[in-house]
Protein backbone atom coordinates (compact mmCIF):
# COMPACT_ATOMS: atom_id res chain seq x y z
CA UNK A 1 0.00 0.00 0.00
CA UNK A 2 1.61 3.24 -1.17
CA UNK A 3 0.33 6.31 0.65
CA UNK A 4 0.58 9.87 -0.59
CA UNK A 5 1.88 11.56 2.56
CA UNK A 6 2.84 10.57 6.09
CA UNK A 7 3.92 12.83 8.94
CA UNK A 8 6.30 11.57 11.64
CA UNK A 9 6.70 13.56 14.85
CA UNK A 10 9.62 12.88 17.15
CA UNK A 11 11.71 12.01 14.11
CA UNK A 12 14.99 13.00 15.80
CA UNK A 13 14.38 10.64 18.72
CA UNK A 14 15.80 7.14 19.13
CA UNK A 15 12.65 5.31 18.02
CA UNK A 16 11.96 7.86 15.32
CA UNK A 17 15.39 7.21 13.87
CA UNK A 18 14.41 3.58 13.16
CA UNK A 19 11.03 4.52 11.69
CA UNK A 20 12.10 7.14 9.16
CA UNK A 21 13.43 4.79 6.48
CA UNK A 22 10.54 2.26 6.45
CA UNK A 23 7.97 5.07 6.60
CA UNK A 24 9.64 6.89 3.70
CA UNK A 25 9.32 3.70 1.66
CA UNK A 26 5.57 3.52 2.36
CA UNK A 27 4.65 6.92 0.92
CA UNK A 28 5.41 9.44 -1.78
CA UNK A 29 6.24 12.10 0.82
CA UNK A 30 7.37 11.72 4.43
CA UNK A 31 7.40 14.88 6.52
CA UNK A 32 9.65 14.32 9.53
CA UNK A 33 9.43 16.86 12.32
CA UNK A 34 11.09 17.55 15.67
CA UNK A 35 12.72 20.42 17.57
CA UNK A 36 16.30 19.99 16.33
CA UNK A 37 17.69 22.28 13.64
CA UNK A 38 18.94 19.48 11.40
CA UNK A 39 18.00 15.81 11.25
CA UNK A 40 20.89 14.79 9.01
CA UNK A 41 20.79 12.94 5.69
CA UNK A 42 17.25 12.52 4.39
CA UNK A 43 15.80 9.40 2.79
CA UNK A 44 14.26 9.46 -0.66
CA UNK A 45 10.92 11.28 -0.46
CA UNK A 46 11.60 12.64 3.04
CA UNK A 47 11.74 16.29 4.05
CA UNK A 48 12.38 17.76 7.47
CA UNK A 49 10.43 20.56 9.15
CA UNK A 50 11.37 21.92 12.57
CA UNK A 51 8.23 22.48 14.63
CA UNK A 52 7.09 22.72 18.24
CA UNK A 53 4.28 20.32 19.13
CA UNK A 54 2.96 22.84 21.66
CA UNK A 55 2.34 25.39 18.87
CA UNK A 56 -0.81 24.69 16.86
CA UNK A 57 0.24 27.26 14.27
CA UNK A 58 3.48 25.33 13.62
CA UNK A 59 1.84 21.89 13.54
CA UNK A 60 -1.26 22.69 11.50
CA UNK A 61 0.39 23.32 8.09
CA UNK A 62 2.52 20.18 8.31
CA UNK A 63 -0.55 17.93 8.25
CA UNK A 64 -2.09 19.38 5.10
CA UNK A 65 -2.69 16.58 2.60
CA UNK A 66 -1.47 13.86 4.96
CA UNK A 67 -3.03 10.40 4.95
CA UNK A 68 -1.81 9.56 8.46
CA UNK A 69 0.29 10.93 11.31
CA UNK A 70 2.75 8.77 13.25
CA UNK A 71 2.94 10.71 16.49
CA UNK A 72 6.09 9.81 18.45
CA UNK A 73 7.02 13.32 19.57
CA UNK A 74 7.05 14.05 23.31
CA UNK A 75 9.25 14.46 26.35
CA UNK A 76 10.01 10.80 27.02
CA UNK A 77 10.58 10.85 30.75
CA UNK A 78 8.82 11.86 33.94
CA UNK A 79 9.05 15.61 34.59
CA UNK A 80 7.09 18.16 36.60
CA UNK A 81 3.59 18.52 35.17
CA UNK A 82 4.26 22.05 33.94
CA UNK A 83 7.13 20.82 31.74
CA UNK A 84 5.04 18.03 30.20
CA UNK A 85 1.93 20.15 29.66
CA UNK A 86 3.05 21.72 26.37
CA UNK A 87 4.59 18.87 24.39
CA UNK A 88 2.81 15.87 25.92
CA UNK A 89 -0.70 17.15 26.61
CA UNK A 90 -1.30 20.21 24.42
CA UNK A 91 0.89 18.67 21.71
CA UNK A 92 -1.44 15.68 21.46
CA UNK A 93 -4.49 17.93 21.21
CA UNK A 94 -2.77 19.94 18.46
CA UNK A 95 -2.05 16.78 16.47
CA UNK A 96 -5.61 15.45 16.74
CA UNK A 97 -7.29 18.77 16.06
CA UNK A 98 -5.04 19.57 13.09
CA UNK A 99 -5.59 16.04 11.78
CA UNK A 100 -9.36 16.52 12.04
CA UNK A 101 -9.27 19.89 10.34
CA UNK A 102 -7.24 18.50 7.44
CA UNK A 103 -9.31 15.32 7.05
CA UNK A 104 -6.41 13.03 8.02
CA UNK A 105 -7.58 9.44 8.17
CA UNK A 106 -5.60 8.04 11.11
CA UNK A 107 -3.14 8.85 13.90
CA UNK A 108 -0.70 6.20 15.11
CA UNK A 109 0.40 7.19 18.60
CA UNK A 110 3.36 6.13 20.73
CA UNK A 111 1.52 5.51 23.97
CA UNK A 112 3.22 3.66 26.80
CA UNK A 113 2.92 0.96 29.41
CA UNK A 114 3.08 3.87 31.87
CA UNK A 115 -0.60 4.54 31.15
CA UNK A 116 -1.22 1.36 33.15
CA UNK A 117 2.08 1.31 35.00
CA UNK A 118 0.72 0.77 38.53
CA UNK A 119 -0.95 -2.50 37.60
CA UNK A 120 0.90 -5.55 38.96
CA UNK A 121 2.78 -7.59 36.37
CA UNK A 122 1.35 -10.75 37.90
CA UNK A 123 -2.16 -9.67 36.81
CA UNK A 124 -1.37 -10.27 33.09
CA UNK A 125 -3.49 -7.32 31.96
CA UNK A 126 -5.07 -7.01 28.53
CA UNK A 127 -5.63 -3.98 26.32
CA UNK A 128 -8.89 -3.26 28.15
CA UNK A 129 -7.22 -2.81 31.56
CA UNK A 130 -8.33 0.46 33.17
CA UNK A 131 -5.90 3.34 33.18
CA UNK A 132 -3.59 3.30 36.20
CA UNK A 133 -0.78 5.77 35.43
CA UNK A 134 2.45 5.70 37.36
CA UNK A 135 3.58 9.30 36.69
CA UNK A 136 2.57 12.59 35.08
CA UNK A 137 4.22 11.12 31.97
CA UNK A 138 1.87 8.14 32.16
CA UNK A 139 -1.05 10.49 32.78
CA UNK A 140 -0.28 12.21 29.47
CA UNK A 141 -0.55 8.83 27.77
CA UNK A 142 -3.94 8.25 29.42
CA UNK A 143 -5.06 11.70 28.28
CA UNK A 144 -4.04 11.03 24.68
CA UNK A 145 -5.65 7.59 24.59
CA UNK A 146 -8.90 9.15 25.82
CA UNK A 147 -8.48 11.99 23.33
CA UNK A 148 -8.13 9.45 20.52
CA UNK A 149 -11.19 7.57 21.72
CA UNK A 150 -13.25 10.76 21.83
CA UNK A 151 -12.15 11.92 18.36
CA UNK A 152 -13.14 8.52 16.97
CA UNK A 153 -16.54 8.57 18.67
CA UNK A 154 -17.34 12.18 17.81
CA UNK A 155 -15.39 12.86 14.62
CA UNK A 156 -14.54 9.45 13.12
CA UNK A 157 -10.78 10.07 13.21
CA UNK A 158 -9.14 6.66 13.56
CA UNK A 159 -6.21 6.06 15.90
CA UNK A 160 -4.00 3.21 17.07
CA UNK A 161 -2.32 3.64 20.44
CA UNK A 162 0.88 1.63 20.84
CA UNK A 163 1.49 0.98 24.54
CA UNK A 164 5.24 0.47 24.23
CA UNK A 165 6.76 -1.45 27.15
CA UNK A 166 10.52 -0.94 26.62
CA UNK A 167 12.12 -0.46 23.23
CA UNK A 168 15.75 -0.49 24.34
CA UNK A 169 18.61 -2.92 24.73
CA UNK A 170 17.94 -5.79 27.14
CA UNK A 171 20.21 -5.14 30.10
CA UNK A 172 17.91 -5.76 33.08
CA UNK A 173 15.48 -8.43 34.23
CA UNK A 174 12.36 -6.30 33.61
CA UNK A 175 13.29 -6.09 29.93
CA UNK A 176 13.18 -9.89 29.61
CA UNK A 177 9.41 -9.46 29.55
CA UNK A 178 9.01 -5.91 28.30
CA UNK A 179 11.46 -5.75 25.37
CA UNK A 180 10.27 -4.46 22.00
CA UNK A 181 12.94 -4.96 19.35
CA UNK A 182 13.38 -2.35 16.65
CA UNK A 183 12.36 -4.84 13.97
CA UNK A 184 9.16 -5.60 15.87
CA UNK A 185 8.59 -1.87 16.40
CA UNK A 186 8.70 -1.36 12.65
CA UNK A 187 6.28 -4.25 12.12
CA UNK A 188 3.95 -2.85 14.81
CA UNK A 189 3.83 0.60 13.22
CA UNK A 190 3.41 -0.91 9.76
CA UNK A 191 0.40 -2.98 10.90
CA UNK A 192 -1.09 0.12 12.55
CA UNK A 193 -0.84 1.85 9.19
CA UNK A 194 -1.85 -0.88 6.73
CA UNK A 195 -4.75 -2.50 8.63
CA UNK A 196 -7.79 -1.43 6.58
CA UNK A 197 -10.02 -0.37 9.47
CA UNK A 198 -9.04 0.23 13.10
CA UNK A 199 -11.51 2.69 14.62
CA UNK A 200 -10.00 3.36 18.03
CA UNK A 201 -7.50 0.66 18.97
CA UNK A 202 -4.96 -0.05 21.72
CA UNK A 203 -2.14 -2.59 21.46
CA UNK A 204 0.88 -3.35 23.60
CA UNK A 205 4.22 -2.73 21.96
CA UNK A 206 6.19 -5.78 23.04
CA UNK A 207 8.13 -8.55 21.31
CA UNK A 208 7.40 -12.28 21.43
CA UNK A 209 9.06 -12.70 24.81
CA UNK A 210 8.66 -15.88 26.86
CA UNK A 211 8.15 -13.66 29.92
CA UNK A 212 5.75 -11.14 28.33
CA UNK A 213 3.53 -9.75 31.12
CA UNK A 214 0.63 -8.41 28.99
CA UNK A 215 -2.08 -9.89 26.77
CA UNK A 216 -2.57 -8.62 23.21
CA UNK A 217 -5.26 -11.17 22.27
CA UNK A 218 -7.98 -8.55 21.81
CA UNK A 219 -5.74 -6.60 19.41
CA UNK A 220 -5.06 -9.58 17.15
CA UNK A 221 -7.13 -8.03 14.34
CA UNK A 222 -4.23 -5.63 13.71
CA UNK A 223 -2.14 -8.56 12.48
CA UNK A 224 0.88 -7.78 14.64
CA UNK A 225 2.91 -10.97 15.10
CA UNK A 226 6.22 -10.17 16.82
CA UNK A 227 9.19 -12.36 16.02
CA UNK A 228 11.97 -11.50 18.49
CA UNK A 229 12.36 -12.96 21.99
CA UNK A 230 14.36 -11.45 24.85
CA UNK A 231 15.00 -14.90 26.32
CA UNK A 232 18.26 -15.05 24.36
CA UNK A 233 19.61 -12.46 26.82
CA UNK A 234 18.24 -14.09 29.98
CA UNK A 235 21.23 -16.06 31.20
CA UNK A 236 23.60 -13.10 31.05
CA UNK A 237 21.13 -10.56 32.48
CA UNK A 238 20.02 -12.71 35.41
CA UNK A 239 23.59 -13.62 36.33
CA UNK A 240 24.62 -9.97 36.39
CA UNK A 241 21.57 -8.62 38.21
CA UNK A 242 21.18 -11.15 40.99
CA UNK A 243 18.13 -11.42 43.32
CA UNK A 244 15.53 -8.62 43.25
CA UNK A 245 13.62 -6.99 46.09
CA UNK A 246 10.09 -8.35 45.83
CA UNK A 247 8.74 -5.46 47.93
CA UNK A 248 9.98 -2.95 45.37
CA UNK A 249 7.12 -1.54 43.19
CA UNK A 250 9.71 -1.06 40.47
CA UNK A 251 10.00 -4.83 40.31
CA UNK A 252 6.36 -5.74 40.87
CA UNK A 253 4.54 -3.14 38.74
CA UNK A 254 4.42 -2.73 34.98
CA UNK A 255 5.90 0.75 35.17
CA UNK A 256 9.23 -0.49 36.52
CA UNK A 257 11.33 2.41 37.89
CA UNK A 258 8.55 4.86 36.93
CA UNK A 259 6.30 3.09 39.46
CA UNK A 260 8.65 3.91 42.34
CA UNK A 261 9.91 7.44 41.64
CA UNK A 262 8.23 10.49 43.14
CA UNK A 263 5.95 12.44 40.83
CA UNK A 264 7.98 14.82 38.71
CA UNK A 265 11.23 12.90 39.23
CA UNK A 266 13.03 11.21 36.35
CA UNK A 267 12.31 7.54 35.76
CA UNK A 268 14.97 7.21 33.08
CA UNK A 269 17.62 8.21 35.61
CA UNK A 270 16.94 4.86 37.32
CA UNK A 271 17.46 2.95 34.08
CA UNK A 272 20.47 2.10 31.93
CA UNK A 273 19.04 2.98 28.52
CA UNK A 274 21.64 2.78 25.78
CA UNK A 275 21.34 5.49 23.13
CA UNK A 276 21.77 3.33 20.03
CA UNK A 277 20.00 5.72 17.71
CA UNK A 278 20.18 4.76 14.04
CA UNK A 279 22.36 7.05 11.93
CA UNK A 280 21.78 7.53 8.21
Automatic annotation (TrEMBL):
GO terms of molecular function: oxidoreductase activity
Keyword NAD among UniProt keywords: yes
Alphabetic keyword roster: NAD, Oxidoreductase
Residue intervals of the NAD-dependent epimerase/dehydratase domain: 7-164
InterPro entries: Epimerase_deHydtase, NAD(P)-bd_dom_sf
A Pfam family matched in the record: Epimerase
Annotated family: Belongs to the NAD(P)-dependent epimerase/dehydratase family.
Name under which the protein is recorded: Uronate dehydrogenase
Amino acid sequence: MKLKKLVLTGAAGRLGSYLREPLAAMCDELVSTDLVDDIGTLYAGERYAKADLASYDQIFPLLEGADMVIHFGAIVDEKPFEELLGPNFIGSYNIWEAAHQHGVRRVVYASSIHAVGMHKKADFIGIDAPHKPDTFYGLAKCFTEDLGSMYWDKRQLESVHLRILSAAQVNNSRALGSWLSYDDLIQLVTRAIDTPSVGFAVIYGVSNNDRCPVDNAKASFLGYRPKDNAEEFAEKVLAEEGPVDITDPGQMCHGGPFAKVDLGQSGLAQMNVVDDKKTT
